[in-house]
Amino acid sequence: MKPILGITMGDPSGNGPEITIKALMKPEIYERCRPVVIGDAVCMEAAASMVEGADGFRIHAIRKVEDAVFAFGTIDVLDMGLVDVSKRLYMKDWKEIEEEVGEEAVKKAYLESHRMCGEAAFQYVKKVIQLAMDGTVDATVTNALNKDYINLAGHHYSGHTEIYADYTGTSHYTMMLAHENLRVVHVSTHVSLREACDRVKKERVLEVIKIADKGCRALGIKNPKIGVAGLNPHCGENGLFGREEIEEIQPAIDEALALGICIPERKPTPPDTVFSKALGGWYDIVVVMYHDQGHIPLKVKGFVYNQERQKWDAVAGINVTLGLPIIRASVDHGTGEGHAGDGSANELSLMNAMDYAIRMAEAKITN
């Protein structure tokens, strides 16, 4: 049986609806899985009208997953009915609306739109988690939401990862980013750089090494090789400029080695070389110490801007939350506020996320 994928529509004023349409216009998706969108049918219909070639596809609004037809040419949408499209505003329309109604009126209208879209995006995520927890869907895939908007709607989370952890009752988890053969997992993510340094503790580093090993095995990698990045330049040069490698990271590595986890170099690797080694096949995954240490190399590799054409040729890479009792893969980009609503968003990252979710679901079913 092909796995059922629950795909959240993302922020209704973002690029999620249109890239979801583009992804589900590809027949190979239906050859590998049974996709159902968690969102608002009216938003998906509006997105289909702006995507070239989508006029022959039917948006099928359903109330429960069991009513989905899972057939190419029909896009099943579990319709939450949360968005009034007459009040949904795209950021690209700001200037035009401002000229019509004035600055203060447009600010008020956008505030109302942001709050509505934040509430809707949050509820889509909450619903797909519920569907995965009760076994209705085999894996979840999330489009981007706007953190400011969900907080404006009264849901105080810093992102998808924290929502998933809360609603699944998970305390030990981490974010994995991946693009092709480069994968990274984080000791900390959405905190200040100062706080991130303070969070480099033996217990947390060891925990993430274990999660990295388990996550690779969930992808079908039988004997994962793990690289562990240092925190400081040159890994601190034996304590000359930082002792985190000596006092926290190396003890975590030693304990992981004692558990039989494969860390080929048996010590932390300088951050300025660890990713080149990973791309060269030294490791299957790299444990990084903070958000940007992992995000920057992934996005340098996966995000390709064409200066001549003034557009993105590729927005690739995915985000997987490891350590959860359910499968969650996500796009590794934002809502694309400046261009959302014009049909130009690139669906490659969503396609990659769906691929990872399918692979993890198949491995879970097999095991």
Automatic annotation (TrEMBL):
Transmembrane segments: none
Record-given protein name: 4-hydroxythreonine-4-phosphate dehydrogenase PdxA
Swiss-Prot/TrEMBL keywords: Metal-binding, NAD, Oxidoreductase
PANTHER family: 4-HYDROXYTHREONINE-4-PHOSPHATE DEHYDROGENASE, D-THREONATE 4-PHOSPHATE DEHYDROGENASE
Family (UniProt): Belongs to the PdxA family. PdxA2 subfamily.
Cofactor requirement: a divalent metal cation
Native source species: Eisenbergiella tayi
Source species, domain of life: Bacteria
SUPFAM superfamilies according to UniProt: Isocitrate/Isopropylmalate dehydrogenase-like (SSF53659)
Subunit note: Homodimer.
Annotated Gene3D superfamilies: Isopropylmalate Dehydrogenase
Biological classification of the source: Bacteria, Bacillati, Bacillota, Clostridia, Lachnospirales
GO molecular function annotations of the record: metal ion binding; NAD binding; oxidoreductase activity
Pfam families in alphabetical order: PdxA (PF04166)
InterPro entries, A to Z: PdxA_fam
